[in-house]
Fold this sequence. Notes:
This protein is of the alpha/beta class. Helix content is 36%, strand content 11%.
Amino acid sequence: xxxxLPAALLLPTLAAGGLVDTIERTVAGVVDCATxxxxxxxxxxxxxxxxARFVQTIAAACTDxxxxxxxxxxxxxxxxxxxxxxxxxxxxLFGDTATKFCDAVFGxxxxxxxxxxxxxxxxxxxxxxxxxxxxxxxxxxxxHFSDSSFAYNQTNAExxxxxxxxxxxxxxxxxxxxxxxxxxxxxxxDAPGRLADSMLDATQKFGAHARFSIFTGDVIDHAxxxxxxxxxPKNMLEFTDQFAQKLSAPLFPALGNxxxxxxxxxxxxxxxxxxxxxxxxxxxxxxxxxxxGENATAQIxxxxxxxxxxxxGMDLRVISVNTQYWYKQNFWLYxxxxxxxxxxxxxSFLVEQLQAAEDAGQRAWIIAHMPPGRGDVVRDQSAYFxxxxxxxxxxxxxxxxxxxxxxEFAIGYADYSARTAENAVSVAMIGPAMTPMSGNxxxxxxx
Length: 447
């Protein structure tokens, strides 16, 4: 691959050639990893002109190239564009971050190998690990909810639209509806209010016998181009109120990647920008305090949305981890060439809580939105998380996630070259979504 020109040298070319036309040709020319790297100087030069020019130009190119409808292009670039421009101004053209950026934004590059890092543990693994055996007591019942994505759907609205999500009035109501939205939802739409009510009503039958419940994230719907900092906290608190009215036992939730505005936006502590996720954590603290108590609520602000709590009447520590700092589509992760193995100390918090559980003779559940090890989770953090699982395998009684919208499970092994029952060390249960949008929707899981 030919060396890329410094971004500053391209500024006159951009100005003379017409910004939108130049960007459209550049975007159309990105077909593999090499062409993505070759395009980065042009994008960096555009970012050097400022956020407003970057957003205006990319949104116009998105519309002209018919990548999405005009309102979707405008909304998505208006919210995500400033983050991408910030990244482009802060990483070099020739480092691993540039490759990771091409993978996250264009899906074009194979990721570099995992950067070696040994997770610091306060204590070595015991020579003789504790073996847990059933005491023969009645099994504890727990409900697992995930990916509700409540939406303001409208029955009989168009379910076959040109946008990423349908069944909504986007101000372009067609004269003739091709596929009317049904009362309990459609595969092209998020969860309507009636479906949410049905799910919550069903919880009262099973929930009367549940010790507690868990929710593994994503309250906010998938119209990601239309979210804002005012409605996200409002919708989070409405979700909390709905569940509080129906559940008789505590609910222990985890944050999803949609619980922010812009969607997926969780800046690292090292990010040099005025944008923060504090408004998310404030809403989280306000809504969840009734279930998790004062100590865990205080942890949320100090540990970027993560907390730990003891399950009622049990020696079980439930550790809720904010995995959005490991998510590829959290574009704040690409604003530095410096390798940051533990953004915002999420792994450190998890280790601290698992060590406390081990010392107290407790078992632990890890709950989070995104299952580590998936293709949309940063490879480095997945590898470091695996170190934690290997160290505390005798303490971790279960892992519970959402995000995939599928009812599935994943197995962790002591040796991934020999995936046998003898080498299995942990199982992650991945709950299906309530929203019918993709996957296999399910109202509630109990176990």
